[in-house]
Amino acid sequence: MAIAFAVSGGAAVAESPLDATRQFNQRAEWEDRFDATLESLQAIKSDKPTLSADTASHIELAMARYQAIVDQGGWPRVTSDKQAMRLGARSEHVVTLRKRLIVSGDLEQNAGQSDTFDSYVDAAVRRFQVRHGLKPDGTVGAGTLTALNVPAEVRLAQLETNLVRVRSMSGFLGDSYVMVNIPAAEIEAVENGRVRSRHTAVVGKIDRQTPVLNSEIYELNFNPYWTVPVSIIRKDLIPKMKEDPEYLARNKIRIFDWKDNELDWRQIDWNTDEATQYQFRQEPGAENSLGSVRINFHNEHQVYLHDTPSKSLFGSDYRFHSSGCVRVQNVRELITWMLQSTTPDWDRARVDYTIKAGLREDVKLQSKVPLYMTYVTAWSTADGIVHFRDDIYNRDGFSLAGDTIVQEANLQ
Questions:
Q1: Mind listing the pLDDT tens digit for each residue in 278-315?
Q2: What is the SS3 assignment for 120?
Q3: Is the pLDDT at 99 greater than 80, yes or no?
Q4: Residues identified as active-site
Q5: Which phi and psi (to 5°) does residue 279 adopt?
Q6: What digits encode the pLDDT tens for the residues 141-180?
Q7: H/E element holding 293?
């Protein structure tokens, strides 16, 4: 499945209405194929990394553009009828939508003032959605409408805040590295200044945040055991056992004391925190919460990157569901790249065989891979594409009161 775009004057347009209609009708296929790549939308993202030695200067150029937009009065507020706007719709709301997309550069200046949601508007909406981390379905539903109506002043403030963050990380990041952008819930594998692969991620909930840190990936665990962290035993496992005593058995989780003696669940008082005194270990297999592989790096937060049996979450715009660790979409591609670049006797065929056979194997990387877990909500790349993400952990230091920015103290 692919949507054909041509880029002209900074805005993407569909090649023909027939192509756009076909893609609209096939939206279900996009929603189901989480590992597929839409070449045209990937081109909008480009192969330029989010984080590089030049990111600060790219943000400064974007700030100048957005300052000009603010100085000229920003962009109009988009409204809609009860139904979402999509290809083929016709109303006065589409006229305002066109104006909004023209101001931000997603639609060409000469696109006109028609009240018809044509293939040009469809392509521009998809481009906007990609830049804002939304599902690129070309439909102006609630999420897209909210993003469209964030004032230009807020977007400029986001760029200013993130310029400070990025400057603190300026410098040489390594010839090859992995970057996790928490607000974007996205992972980039970067090699020689270009993104080798991008991976959708699921990161920490608001009350169990994924930490910002720098480290190095040193080991992969194939078909791993999962030792349940104490925080999850307390917050999740104990309540589940109160509701359903068969929960542990059904999920192949065994209980051990610290001398490695196995216990029966009936030996524990689930009405107290007694369970936190023991080890809960989930066997490898289809139900394992880590999926087929765990990616280890040194850190004090006891977090790691890993596969997951819950692939459906990768298809959501909102991907903040974990307890702090990072789940990786298409993890085999990421680990094959790491293994090939650092441990040459591994290739994709060996990765696939090890996982399919259910072999328990721990692989130390011959060369560690730098890892940067960052919090960047606004950035621009070398090709001038400006991206924004929601400030999911409320770290940007400002909030909205109507259409006015309220600056807060203690920027993080």
A1: 999 999 987 788 899 999 999 999 899 999 876 555 55
A2: helix
A3: yes
A4: 306, 325
A5: -95, 135
A6: 999 999 999 999 999 999 999 999 999 886 789 999 999 9
A7: strand 293-297
- Cα dist from 397 to 40, 57, 63, 221, 410, whole Å: 35, 22, 17, 38, 7
Contact 190, 176 (CB under 8 A): yes
Residues in a beta bridge with 7: 12
DSSP symbols for 317-381: S--EEESSSEEETTHHHHHHHHHHHH-TT--HHHHHHHHHHT--EEEEEEEEEEEEEE--SEEE-
Q: Tell me the per-residue pLDDT of 106-117, one tens digit each, with 9 for 90 and over.
A: 999 888 889 999
How far the first Cα of the chain sits from its last, in Å, is: 41
Both tokens assigned to 171: 């410098």
What CA–CA distance (Å, rounded) separates 23 from 17? Answer: 10
By C-alpha distance, which of 171, 170, 178 is closest to 341? 178
Tokens of 340: 């090939």
SS3 180: strand
Check residue 138 and give left, alpha or beta (phi > 0: left; psi -120 to 50: alpha): left
- Summarize pLDDT for 370-382 with one digit per residue, the tens: 999 999 999 998 8
Does residue 345 contact residue 210 with C-beta atoms inside 8 Å? no
Residue 24 CB neighbour total at 10 angstroms: 17
